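Duplicate of earlier report; Diaminopimelate epimerase input re-posted below.
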Amino acid sequence: MTVTSFHKMHGLGNDFVIIDARLAAVEMTAPRAHAIADRRTGIGCDQLILLEPSNTADVRMRIFNADGGEVEACGNATRCVATLLGTPAQIETKGGILETRPQDNSATVFLNPPAFEWEFIPLAMPMDTMDMPVGWETLERPMAVNVGNPHVIFFVPDTDSVDLERLGPIIETDPLFPEKINVNVATIVDSQNIRLRVWERGVGLTLACGTGACATAVAAIRSGQAASPVTIHLPGGELRIGWQEGGPIEMEGPSTHVFTGQADWSAFG
Ligand SMILES: N[C@@H](CCC[C@H](N)C(=O)O)C(=O)O
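Output:
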C-alpha cells in the first residue's frame, strides 16, 4: 500500500483532485481516474490532475475528465496548479506549454493563440468555423474554437432557457466532432460582459469552465460582438479574459484550496 497526499481545489466551483507525483510516480489509468472522480464512491471531482516532472517546462500537468478520458487543457485547474506552485511558472500540458502567474487566491494563465481551422478543432468535414451551417433543435450556427481543447459556442438570447442537460450530450457526441466537443451556450449582455453555461466533454454540466470562457470570449471578440477584455459570468462566478487577434489568451480568476488529504490510489482499481 502506497499512501500519497493530494489537494482538493476548485476554480469557481469546477473542482479537482490534484496529485503531486513529481517526486513519487503515481500510475494513472482511465478506470482509476474515473473511480477517483466518482462523487458517490470515490473522492469526487470534475477533473483529476496529475503533476509530473517535465523536460520542457517547470512541471507537466496531466488532465483526466471525470469519465477517465485524458484531455489537453483545463483552464480552471491550471489556475489552481499555478496557485499551488506559488511562483510564475511554465506548465506543460497536452495542449501546449502555458505561462502562469499566481496572485493571492487567484492566478493569471496565458493560453496559446487559438486555432480556427476546421481540421484543428477538429471537425469531421470542412466548413466555416465562424458560422457553422449546422444545428441541433433550437441551437444553430455555432462557432468552433480550439484553445488547447475543442469548443463550440452557441450565442443565444437567454442561456438559462436552453435545456443544456439534454442537448449537451447529443452535441458532445455528434459524429461531426471526431474527438467529441465542449458545448458552450452564451448570451451577450454588452460588449464587455457575457453570460455562459457549459456542458463539458467527459463531465457534463459544470459550475465553470475556464477554457470555455476563453473560447467564448475569443468567438465573441472575433465576430465583433464583444471587445477585449471581457468578463465571463458563469454559474460559479466570473473570469476576465483578454485577447487580441493572433495573440495568446489571458485568463484571470480565482483558485481556491479546499483541503489536503491522503489516499492509497491502488484502492481505486
Ligand atoms: N474544466 C475545464 C475543462 C476540462 C476539460 C474539458 N472537459 C475537455 O474535455 O476538454 C476548464 O476549466 O477549462
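The longest strand covers residues 3-11.

Merging into the original ticket.
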